[in-house]
Amino acid sequence: MKSTQLGLMLLAAIGLSAQTAAAQEWGTVTGRFIVDGKVATLPADEVTKDAGFCGAKLPNQTLTVSEDGGLKNVAVWLYLDRGQDAPAVHPSYAEATKKPVVIDNKACLYEPHISAVVVGQPVEFKNSDPIPHNFKVEGFANAGMNNLVPVGGVFEHKFDSEERYPMNASCSIHPWMTAKIVVRELPYMAVSAEDGTFTIENLPVGKHKLQVWHEIPGTVKEMQVGGKKVKDRKGLLEIEVKAGQNDLGNLVIDAGDLK
Fold first, then answer.
1. Torsion of CA 167, 171, 172, 173, to 10 degrees
2. CA separation for the pair 1, 7 (Å, rounded)
3. In the CATH hierarchy, which fold is given to the domain comprising 27-88+187-259?
4. What is the per-residue pLDDT across 164-221, written as a single tens digit (0 to 9) for each?
5. 10 Å Cβ neighbour count for 208?
6. Whole-prediction pTM value?
7. pLDDT given for residue 16 in this prediction
């Protein structure tokens, strides 16, 4: 009798969970970061080692703007206020966060320059160059690492804590090589592409805050969204997500803030 009651209670709980999941609505957020005004071209990085392979100079990846003003490598992630409960995570992320994020050494530069990683997700630090590199990664919540990756080698690592801001990655052998790694508990984050566009898929419907970050200013404290000026010292952008597609349009950053 007891086992029958337990079975019925378990079935009821499963049914309730399924109903809750089915009742949850989701929305995908898109947008495009663009620069208003002309930014200064950063000087190329001087190559001080292995110039025979790397070349004499390499492009500085800190600031990349397309011909029509698209701003690459802006990181955006879901921000939770202190004590705020984390929102539901869409089932699609269960498999997606098992796939490794690859950070490669290609032609003496990191590829990609900015990476987004979920806590516990495998990261493959790879070396596709014919010369050795090392990954020196430093944050606050995670222990630092400094690992040599030989030619053709791969070093796998998992970060076990969320970082408030992006971690620094560098190569001790080639000092011009730098990158950033965003490590968050929740998978709701993105890095803008070559043309400035970004996508965060399957956010729960409702009001949320996004934190906006770029390597030069750090948190982006001011921008134009939908023709209106948005200012926040923490770089927070409040949005309301509706079911389906949510296009924020152009998020405009003044060139003067990218000096």
1. 180
2. 10
3. Immunoglobulin-like (2.60.40)
4. 999 999 999 999 999 999 999 999 999 999 999 999 999 999 999 999 999 999 999 9
5. 20
6. 0.90
7. 36
CA 173 to chain centre: 26
CATH superfamily, with its number, for domain 98-184:
Cupredoxins -  blue copper proteins (2.60.40.420)
Residue 40: CA atoms inside 13 Å, Cβ hemisphere, count?
8
Q: 20-29, 140-149, 182-191, 226-235: lowest mean pLDDT where?
A: 20-29
| DSSP for residue 86 | P
For the sheet with 154-158, list strands across it.
Answer: 109-111, 101-106, 122-127, 154-158
118: number of CA atoms within 13 Å, CB side?
A: 16
- 161 vs 118, 119, 194, 245, CA distance in Å? 9, 6, 29, 31
